[in-house]
Specification:
- The protein has 275 residues and is of the alpha/beta class.
- The protein has a six-stranded mixed beta sheet with strand order 3-2-1-4-5-6, sandwiched between helices.
- The chain is globular, with a radius of gyration of 20 Å.
Length: 275
Amino acid sequence: MTKDSEPETSESLKTFGAVLKALRDEAGLTQEQFAPRVRYSATYVAKMEQGRRFPPKELIPRTEEVLGAPAARVLGAAYRTLTRKVGLASWFLRWAGIEEEAVSLLTYECAVIPGLLQPEPYIRAVFDRYLPHISEEQYEQQVVARLARQRLFKERPNTSFCFTIEQALLERHFGGPEVTQALLDHLLEQQRRRNVEIQIMPLRQEDHSGFEGPMRLAETADHRWVGYVEAHDSSVLITEPKAFSAMLQRYGKLRSQALSPQDTTSLLERMRGAL
């Protein structure tokens, strides 16, 4: 177990920002002139150029409309170098490395929506409430890291991602109605991916095997299993066969107790319509 929660520095994000600024300067545009043409605020553009805000994926095609195809290709190449590990707490880094190479990832969560499923408004709501408070730079690095990790869904289409989450996390309306709306829309979008399966554990479920708390399991490329649990800025990586075997049994039971993926989608749609 480790307890060092300091995030790492985002050199790749700073590099991307420098490339964006150079291309904008080459075109003779100020931030105030460039921002409305790519449909962002000047403040948002400034933060991207400073390496303090993760660039949205829509930025690249919008840049092509303004700066041309060659500039967009350069910016796209810089975008692909952004590392998903920047800003991750050091106690999480080892698991993040396992996560990137896994052929199966299983997650049960009862405290907060899993990071891989969080839309940006939810991520920001989480770190707005993080204690002790962190600096603006650390805040942006954490947001960047969490968003970058979500590229796994596209970059590893053959990896199976399974999530079992408690309905209470959705009913809580964490962050307010707008954040909840963004979350429900995002979950429905992710559920449509062929390699992602989300199941909701109903509010009332007498036969419930998740009372020992959140857990994650990964099947490695050589078909070994590794378990992982975390709480309060500390974590435990579980490699002992007897221990992760027990976790696999619990997770299998949880999946049988939760709503099916189809029923989960129906529930998400009803909740979204009720907002």
